[in-house]
Amino acid sequence: MTEPAKSFRVGLIGTGRISDIYLKTLTKYPQVSVVACGSLNLDESRAKAEAYGVPRVAAPREIIADPEIDAILNLTIPAAHAGVSMAALAAGKHVYSEKPLVSDLADGRRVLDLAAEKGLTVGNAPDTWLGGRWQTMRKLLDQGAIGRPTGCAAFVGTHGTERHNPNPDFYYQIGGGPMLDLGPYYLSAMVFLLGPVVRVAGMANRGFDRRMIENGPRHGAWMEVEVDTHVQGMLEFESGAIGSITMSFDIWDSEMPRFEIYGTDGTICIPDPDPVYGANRFEGEVWYRTRDTARWTHQPRPTGRDVWQVAENTHGINEDSRGMGLIEMADAIVHGRKPRCSGELAYHVLEVMTGILDSPARGAFVEIDSRPDRPGILPTNFPEA
Ligand SMILES: NC(=O)c1ccc[n+]([C@@H]2O[C@H](COP(=O)([O-])OP(=O)(O)OC[C@H]3O[C@@H](n4cnc5c(N)ncnc54)[C@H](O)[C@@H]3O)[C@@H](O)[C@H]2O)c1
Question: Which residue in 180, 182, 191, 212 is a FRET match for 168, CA 20 to 30 A apart?
Fold first, then answer.
């Protein structure tokens, strides 16, 4: 990186739960500055502005209309992503949004088309795959540590959000569910590691038609479940590799939360014993075993952490740094290149997720039309200049 984009001025819309980590990250780095924030609840926005030194609080439409603002950071709920992003683009602003890009593909196309027409950039979470463990995984692949990748698997089994989130409603409404909520972390990482997906199939079901909020001031209130909450998908990559993905809000416990890539000469694994957050973090170890060290070469077969090799992590982002994708996008705009956490990648991931969810009703594989570029590995010192 050369000259950082010090003047990249960001207006934040949506000051709920996830905004804290964004504001923490963005105030740490000089490349961007959050100059205003707002939401449907301006008292909430004022509290966040005070806590993180955001100079101005205003209604969302005023922030979108402000000619001094370069980009809108859209941290609203999924059902509001399309409306806020379209309004921001129409007003001539770049957009970086939380995941998913939007809730349905047609809206996603509209967002990307409007951005292209206006010459603006769309970036999208998740950016966790910019973290050291995922970049290390890519480095191992590029070095040929496991030969030619043939498969991958992602598994997250949680029991939803109603035990820790006081307002978990949107996770069970149209636009929510475990695939649209958690799938973007793993599918974005898969495309970064293995390239784009060409076809998918899936199955899904629903453990509960109603769920009770089990924390906070609304404890005891019931929510209707509008979406399937236990989803399994199969993926075929353009490279010929195949993958599986299980995302669930219906699993009380499991030993399975992992992300793995299988190759002709070995396995790379992101282990994660935390069933709530799965492996969707920037930080953590990357393990690998090759044909020389794999358990199949030993008698009796050893298992567990001690028999894996821990990969050396030479990359820079090794703590929760949500918002890093926006910093990278600002750098990309200043240097006239495409951002890594791009709208095109998010659209592809949305097409894959909706394909998996649509496949049971269609009784068929779903072909995936979009082909985003496979994002490049980050410089090891990113985001330092
Ligand atoms: N909470 C998490 O742990 C988490 C983690 C990762 C990603 N996310 C994603 O972040 C996004 C926000 O999640 P959250 O948990 O912060 O939600 P939240 O309900 O806590 O906050 C949502 C915010 O958006 C505002 N908002 C909603 N509709 C709006 C509209 N039409 N116009 C303007 N503002 C609007 C609300 O006033 C509120 O400030 C979601 O897309 C979610 O998937 C959340």
Answer: 191
Contact 329, 94 (CB under 8 A): yes
Residue 41 CA: which ligand 1 atom is closest?
37
Domain locations along the chain: 8-124, 130-310
What's the sign of the alpha-carbon dihedral 85, 86, 88, 92? positive
Q: Does domain 8-124 have CATH number 3.40.50.720?
A: yes
Pick the atom of ligand 1 nearest to 165's CA: 1
What is the signed CA dihedral for 13, 19, 24, 30, rounded to 10 degrees? -20
Report residue 180 as tokens.
């649209």
Q: What is the 3-state secondary structure (H, E, C) of 199-267?
A: EEEEEEECCCCEEECCCCCCCCCEEECCCCCEEEEEEEECCCCEEEEEEECCCCCCCCCEEEEEECCEE
H helix count then E strand count, the chain: 9, 16
Give the integer Cα–Cα distance in Å for 164 and 162.
6
Give yes or no for residue 301 having a pLDDT over 70.
Answer: no
Lowest mean pLDDT among 60-69, 218-227, 278-287, 369-378: 278-287
Nearest CA to ligand 1 atom 17: 16
Rounded Cα distance between 16 and 126, Å, is: 17
Ligand 1 and 264: CB distance under 6 A: no
Domain 130-310 has CATH 3.30.360.10: yes
Check if 314 has its Cβ closer than 6 Å to any atom of ligand 1.
no
Residue 295 Cα to ligand 1 middle (Å) = 44
Amino acid at 296: W
Read off the pLDDT of residues 150-171 as tens digits, 9 standing for 90 and up.
Answer: 999 999 888 999 999 999 999 9
pTM for this prediction: 0.94
Helix (H), strand (E) at residue 287: strand 287-290
Q: Phi and psi at residue 89, in whole multiples of 5°?
A: -65, -40
